[in-house]
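WARN  no MSA supplied for this record, continuing single-sequence
INFO  ligand: PRP
INFO  echoing inputs
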Amino acid sequence: MKYLTFALAKGRLAKKTLELFEQIGITCEEMKDPTSRKLIFVNEELKLKFFLSKAPDVPTYVEYGAADIGVVGKDTILEEGRKLYEVLDLGFGKCKMCVAGPKEAAELLKHNELIRVATKYPNIAKDYFHNKKHQTVEIIKLNGSIELAPIVGLSEVIVDIVETGSTLRENGLTVLEEVCPLSARMVVNQVSLKMEHERIRKIIHDLNELQGNK
Ligand code: PRP
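INFO  complex generated
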């Protein structure tokens, strides 16, 4: 039997994914050691491999077939725009992609003004402003702490993830518009879904059942 390979986004998402998988009998003892710096783990008995990568790289590994299955946030799937099948909403990591800024910036969004938008997600921001709102904006790519941008005058608004809203609140910013809901999703390589149909279908089925029973 061939190994079924999973690419997981390093960090909280991977931990949550393994907890969920454990409930359907997919386990990897090796991965539970928090001090380990290993990036790839094997369950020989079940012929499973798991590896940890940076979240934006998960769709890349899955598109190219280096991983059969990936678990990653919807934000990353939308931003990366890779060719893969999104098969399941895992129901955790729930948050929203939002346009945020100081409350005065709300006016700028109403009148189609040429504004600057700072974000870690330039493709999502471009799609939202250009295709959905038909507003011409200048998009500025940042790599983190996006909330800084409107405070220091780099941009009028930001497009970013809002979970509890604390980061915005503590920095005097507010949600101005909601772009889309987000959560962790399971994605599958297009060829693997055909070649490993039985095994992958069973995982999807078991996860669906688990969610139904909650
Ligand atoms: C994310 C996001 C917001 C924050 C939202 O940042 O970019 O800054 O979490 O969460 P909240 O609504 O619960 O406050 P992350 O911690 O991933 O770091 P980053 O700034 O490096 O993107």
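The chain has a mean pLDDT of 95.
INFO  checksum written, moving to next record
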